[in-house]
Design brief:
It is a single chain. By secondary structure, the protein is mainly alpha-helical. It has 5 helices and 2 strands. It has a two-stranded antiparallel ribbon with strand order 1-2. A hairpin with a 4-residue loop joins strand 1 and strand 2. Helix 1 packs across helix 2. The longest helix has 17 residues. It starts with 22 loop residues before the first helix and ends with a helix.
């Protein structure tokens, strides 16, 4: 029997100190409690994105190799991964043909923001 997971929301700081000019600024809103994870998250997302362009996407089980390569602790890695998944920036999917979980870049983050923007525009313009 599968254990039910409780849904803990991701809190995003929506008070940027300046203009949002790049991915680093967006990630800064997600990692506002731990700003040091921002640069590491950018590096990880770039790594996953590059793997996604190959015929062999990044496998979830490769986390220890990644941590060793970049000098990151297991706890820090899983904290970063959890925040990126909750934000909708990455997704973990099961690939039945190789019987492994893969981590890929996701468009859920932009979809959520786009929907929120349309809802807010509709409210303002009604």
């Amino acid at each position: 029997m599968k254990k039910a997971r409780s849904k803990i929301p991701l809190k995003v700081e929506l008070e940027p100190e300046g203009l949002i000019e790049g991915v680093r600024d967006i990630l800064g809103l997600i990692f506002w409690k731990e700003p040091s994870l921002t640069d590491e998250a950018i590096e990880f997302l770039s790594y996953v994105k590059e793997w996604g362009r190959t015929g062999s996407p990044y496998k979830a089980e490769d986390w220890s190799n990644y941590c060793a390569r970049v000098g990151m602790s297991q706890g820090k890695y899983h904290n970063m991964l959890r925040r990126l998944k909750k934000a909708g920036m990455i997704e973990k999917t099961y690939n039945g043909s190789i019987r492994r979980h893969e981590i890929r870049i996701s468009d859920r983050f932009s979809s959520h923001l786009s929907r929120m923007s349309r809802l807010w525009d509709g409210f303002c313009n009604s």
